[in-house]
Write a structure and sequence with these properties.
Length: about 325
């Protein structure tokens, strides 16, 4: 049984990872519940939840001096690019300073650590148009969010080379699946669509706002494949000091995405077209050969991932209906 710390562990990706590991391991979750929710976490004796911020130095010192962890997943972040443009200093404290502070706490206290895995983002590639993105492609971070992710990622990798701290980093492409919070306008687009589909099925008036003409494309990766990749990277010796893209290696445009979900649910989602978002990247696609070399094989393409997501949402909707 390993001891695992997951920061941001009540959020979408973090809670799925926490529920996955808490079946067989002891998991500690730290989350300030700014985007995540305690209800995402399964109740088990193996899981300990701490409400707090990764920027709270006293709290982080206490946690990292009291327990020796085998694995640390640092997923806590303000994931909104727009928020980082509006509040660069505040988001820098969470997206960069917390990582640096964690690295130092690990260097000074975590002597048996097997891996510290840091969640970075495809945002580091910016708008340079060459596709698919390889880990060694041109890096052009354009926003405080992307700059912080890239700088933090560099420190994480460097701590392996300089101090022999076992680290790895991942660059998430567009992750989707159950528990993704659709509340913010900068939430993952599929979670926003799913929210509108649910309203439509409940016969409420709704429209999905498409920014641009819907020809922009993304490499959408289903959460279960992300968990597979994180587990493989965290446990592989070849991934020490390395950075990996996590995607599927296939992209789909938003129009096709809507028509695929329309077909699945046998409805027609009303769409209202607006100006494209400023700073929006037209196309994004991961080259996943590097992560495949540690054993990753995506199990879901966009169609089968959406099928699973939709059936989860429909089952939940029925449950909600019964509860009311
Ligand atoms: C993703 C990440 C972001 C950053 C970025 C790097 C998510 C949720 N966000 O942003 O954190 O890493 O990649 O490039 O994974 N859209 C609509 N209507 C809506 C919402 C979105 O048309 O209501 C469009 C949006 O303008 C964009 C596309 O959908 O063209 C995808 O948007 P997103 O926010 O899900 O993800 P992205 O790729 O902009």
């Amino acid at each position: 049984m390993n001891n695992i710390l997951i920061t941001g562990g009540a959020g979408f990706i973090g809670s799925t990872l926490a529920n996955f590991y808490s079946k067989d391991h002891k998991v500690t979750v730290i989350d300030d519940l700014s985007m995540g929710s305690k209800s995402n976490l399964e109740t088990t004796a193996n899981l300990c939840f701490i409400e707090g911020s990764v920027t709270d130095h006293e709290l982080m010192t206490e946690v990292l001096t009291q327990t020796q962890f085998d694995y640390i997943f640092h997923l806590a972040a303000i994931a909104s690019v727009a928020d980082s443009v509006a509040r660069p200093l505040e988001t820098h404290q969470i997206n960069f300073d917390s990582v640096f502070q964690l690295l130092e706490l690990v260097r000074n206290n975590q002597f048996g650590l097997k891996r510290l895995l840091f969640a970075s983002s495809a945002a580091v590639y910016g708008d340079e148009p060459t596709l698919p993105k390889q880990e060694e492609s041109v890096i052009r971070p354009l926003t405080p969010y992307a700059i912080d992710k890239f700088a933090a990622e560099k420190y994480v990798v460097d701590y392996y080379h300089l101090y022999d701290i076992p680290t790895s980093a991942v660059r998430f492409f567009n992750v989707y699946g159950p528990k993704q919070n659709p509340e913010s306008p900068y939430s993952g687009v599929i979670s926003i669509m799913m929210d509108r589909y649910k309203k439509l099925l409940n016969k409420e008036a709704t429209t999905f706002t498409m920014f641009g003409d819907g020809t922009q494309s993304r490499d959408f990766v289903f959460i279960e494949d992300v968990i597979q990749a994180l587990n493989l990277i965290a446990t592989s010796q070849d991934s020490l000091g390395e950075v990996y893209n996590i995607g599927t290696g296939e992209a789909i445009d938003l129009n096709k995405l809507v028509s695929t979900i329309n077909d699945l649910l046998e409805v027609d989602l009303p769409i209202c077209y607006e100006e494209e978002r400023s700073g929006d990247i037209k196309h994004s696609l991961a080259d996943i050969s590097k992560v495949k070399a540690v054993g990753y094989q995506p199990k879901y393409n966009i169609k089968s991932g959406l099928e699973k997501y939709v059936s989860y949402e429909l089952a939940n909707r029925d449950k909600e209906g019964l509860d009311n």
